[in-house]
Amino acid sequence: QVQLVESGGGLVQAGGSLRLSCTASGRTFSLYAMGWFRQAPGKEREFVAAISQSMSNIYYADTVKGRFTISRDNAKYTVYLQMNSLKSEDTAVYYCSAARRLGSYEYWGQGTQVTVSS
């Protein structure tokens, strides 16, 4: 069982930046690929970014490519999402997730709210 706790959300003006963190319990963090997803009000949850266990594979949604950067620190059991040039359409609850294989997400955090004011 992996427990995930997100932090770093908040209110920011358009064009600003935020860095989200997601810390996992246990020492098996390096065995999991990690992903970030988001869900805006009235919309389905959507993929944002993912990073493989060894960091050799990284993926982004087209909507965030060039603005967001995913990274991880296996020694700290933490995955990050650096979000720059934020837009109002980035407003959502952001979730991190863990997967033993990319695409097969098994564990989810509780989410952190990101609100971008225009």
Rg (C-alpha, Å)? 13 Å
Bulk shape: globular
Structural class: mainly beta
Stretches where pLDDT is under 50 for at least 5 consecutive residues are none
Write up what this structure looks like.
There is one protein chain. The protein contains no helices and 11 strands. It has 118 residues and is an all-beta fold. Strands 2, 4, 5, 6, 9, 10 and 11 form a 7-stranded mixed sheet that branches. Strands 1-3-8-7 form a 4-stranded antiparallel sheet, with no helix packed on it. Strand 4 (33-39) and strand 5 (46-51) form a beta hairpin. The model has no long low-confidence stretch (mean pLDDT 96).
Considering the chains and any ligands shown, give keywords for the structure.
single chain, 118 residues, mainly beta, seven-stranded mixed sheet, four-stranded antiparallel sheet, 11 strands
Walk me through the topology.
Blueprint: E1 4-7, E2 10-13, E3 18-24, E4 33-39, E5 46-51, E6 58-60, E7 68-73, E8 78-83, E9 92-99, E10 105-108, E11 112-117
Parallel strand pairs: 2-11
Antiparallel strand pairs: 1-3, 3-8, 4-5, 4-9, 5-6, 7-8, 9-10, 9-11
